[in-house]
Design brief:
The complex is a heterodimer of chains A (200) and B (259).
Chain A lengths: L4 E2 L3 H8 L3 H28 L2 H17 L10 H20 L3 H10 L2 H11 L2 H4 L1 H9 L3 H12 L4 H8 L3 H30 L1
Helix pairs in contact in A: 1-2, 2-3, 2-4, 2-9, 3-4, 5-8, 6-8, 8-11, 9-10, 9-11, 10-11
Chain B lengths: L15 H13 L5 H13 L1 H20 L8 E2 L1 H5 L8 H23 L3 H11 L11 H12 L3 E3 L6 E8 L8 E9 L6 E11 L15 E7 L2 E7 L10 E3 L6 E2 L2
Antiparallel strand pairs in B: 2-8, 3-4, 4-5, 5-7, 6-7, 6-9
The chains are: A mainly alpha (200), B alpha+beta (259).
Chain lengths: 200, 259
């Protein structure tokens, strides 16, 4: 997982820090944000259910968090704090977009063909993992379940870490992951079944 | 790492499928113990459906990792924050200047109520003392001598009308410690029986004269004039200056008095 913040490296930011408090705060923020960037993107993707929107959300969340960085208590869990900012930003973005989670699921049930076709094609893995069906299944998950799933499967976070970041009990995080995986598995297996029956 | 038990009753609709899903997930994640793993793999050999599910799970996981790879996410730029100057209100000096201006405005509004106008106070004191002078000049020479000594400038008077009497001199410490006061009595015959009114003329050297507000004077009026190096302020119940026009620099015909 790469993590980069363009416009300034940590070293550059630290150089700036010498010129004043604002620079020091920025350098501190960058040093904490960079390692967390991947996780935050997954949270943004989990809440919005949309990869390209996650990019915009993370960008906005980073700027908001940078401006509110004085509210962060040093020594506490930065990832949990940043996750909250990201989640709120993502929810606001989703609200602005005017799509509720329910609508997302309804659209996903029909297959969000245009977007997902484009995303599946860009992933270049449509044939082997049924990317299109996978994206539809992911879009059909509830927000928290989707976030837990991505943090576990893609981010490789422990359930304890997911619990802290998503702010749900550890057992609930596990339930979300198991049930989400089951939903995805079934979607793929159903697809396989239809494909097999279609070829007969 | 501890692995909490799967809370099968945590979500609605949980069933035996949940336990199966948990085992598949644990197997795929490599979280089963060796004994559990061997048993699970043996079960897969017997149960083709289970093996299919495990395979589907692996494909789903791989697909998720490819589709939601954070490494492919757009870069995050914090430049906007870095280049955004502090909001004008957040600049300390702007706040400081605003506070000073606010205090100044507040002072202008509040000050007259906190400290009464010293001219009005001086007039009230003279009235309470029945406008009794501290010194009286009986000749024009004495008048010039007094003003020269007190103000550094000899003053004289033009012909004083019959209804005006220059009573004498006093001091007005309310205005300044060195302010001289010329007390004049007006024989007012307008609109009824004759009665006396008093007019005060505060005098100071122009270079040390204190500027005094004209506000909150009640029924009194304030007129100012400068004669030579002397600053004069007439405090009067009348709407026009009565005494200032009578004063002039000694040796001159007229003063430049004005209201």
């Amino acid at each position: 997982m790469t993590a980069s913040v363009s416009g300034s490296t940590t070293q550059q930011a630290r150089d700036v820090a010498a010129s004043g408090d604002a620079g020091a705060a920025r350098a501190e923020f960058v040093s904490l944000f960079e390692p967390a960037r991947g996780q935050m993107w997954l949270i943004a993707a989990g809440v919005t259910g949309n990869r390209s929107e996650a990019d915009d959300v993370l960008q906005e969340a980073a700027i908001i968090a940078m401006r509110k960085f004085h509210e962060f208590t040093p020594g506490t869990n930065f990832n949990a704090w940043m996750a909250e900012v990201t989640r709120n930003t993502a929810r606001n973005a989703r609200r602005k977009r005017g799509r509720s989670d329910k609508l997302t699921r309804a659209v996903a049930a029909q297959g969000v063909r245009e977007t997902q076709d484009a995303e599946a094609t860009s992933a270049g893995h449509a044939g082997s993992v049924h990317a299109e069906k996978l994206l539809a299944a992911v879009a059909g998950l509830e927000e928290t379940a989707r976030t837990c799933l991505l943090l576990r499967v893609v981010g490789g976070l422990s359930y304890e870490a997911i619990s802290r970041v998503v702010q749900v009990p550890e057992g609930t995080a596990m339930s979300h992951v198991f049930r989400s995986r089951e939903a995805l598995r079934k979607r793929l297996l159903d697809g396989m079944g239809r494909e097999k029956s279609g070829t007969r | 790492m501890s692995t909490p038990e799967f809370p099968s009753s945590d979500l609605p609709g949980a069933s035996l499928d949940a336990a199966r899903s948990e085992r598949i997930a644990r197997y795929v994640d490599g979280m089963l113990s060796d004994v559990e793993r061997v048993a699970f793999e043996a079960e897969m050999l017997r149960d083709g459906e289970l093996a299919r599910e495990v395979q589907a799970q692996r494909e789903a996981d791989v697909g998720l990792r490819m589709l939601f790879d954070p490494a492919q996410a757009a870069e995050v730029s914090l430049d906007e924050v870095a280049e955004t100057p502090l909001g004008w209100w957040r600049r300390g000096w702007v706040r400081f200047a605003a506070a000073i201006v606010l205090l100044g405005l507040t002072w202008l509004i509040v000050e007259p109520f906190v400290w009464p106008n010293p001219l009005a106070v001086a007039y009230a004191r003279e009235r309470s003392e029945n406008f009794k002078p501290y010194a009286v000049c009986t000749t024009p020479e004495e008048f010039q001598s007094w003003t020269r000594a007190a103000l550094g400038e000899p003053l004289a008077t033009t012909e004083v009308p019959a209804d005006i009497e220059l009573v004498g001199w006093d001091y007005a410490p309310e205005v300044a410690g060195y302010t001289s006061v010329l007390i004049a009595k007006i024989d007012d015959r307008r609109g009824g029986p004759p009665h006396d009114q008093h007019v005060l003329v505060m005098m100071d050297r122009a270079d040390r004269a204190r500027r005094v507000s004209h506000r909150l004077m009640g029924d009194l009026h304030v007129f100012e004039a400068t004669i030579g190096e002397v600053r004069l302020t007439e405090v009067s119940p009348y709407e026009v200056p009565l005494v200032l026009p009578l004063l002039r620099k000694a040796g001159c015909e007229k003063s430049k008095a004005g209201g």
